[in-house]
Amino acid sequence: MTHLLRDESSSFPYGALPYLQVHYIVVCDSLDSNRFLAKCVPITRGRFSNKEVTEVKWSGASNFANVLQEDPHLNELLKEVLLREREIRVEPVGDHVRIYGTWRHEYETHFSRTMIEIADRIGMHIKEMTRKNSN
Length: 135
Hints:
Blueprint: E1 19-20, E2 23-27, E3 38-45, E4 52-60, H1 64-69, H2 72-85, E5 88-93, E6 96-100, E7 104-105, H3 113-134
Antiparallel strand pairs: 1-7, 2-6, 3-4, 3-5, 5-6
Helix pairs in contact: 2-3
């Protein structure tokens, strides 16, 4: 039996990477949080500086992606930020749901008010769906 030995004294070439990712956490108080899984990707037109988001496409588990797709105000907000964010993901983590976008370099630590509004709107849909199931 051959064991691979690793020299613990050698330093690794990577340390903490200078990238951040903002996560918005929604407490859904539901044991069925797995149904809140969705991903939003932009449908674009044009190239380079003329590139624009024409539509957004939600895909994911159960009816949740359809609920998000049918919200016209959410889709308009997404058209504003998806060129920078590239995609928005919604994932269950235990009895919480996290909403997040892309990784950012540590020098780009600004927070988008529109992205906060998007996360709030998605959180509102999560809360509504958990309230309907608890009644």
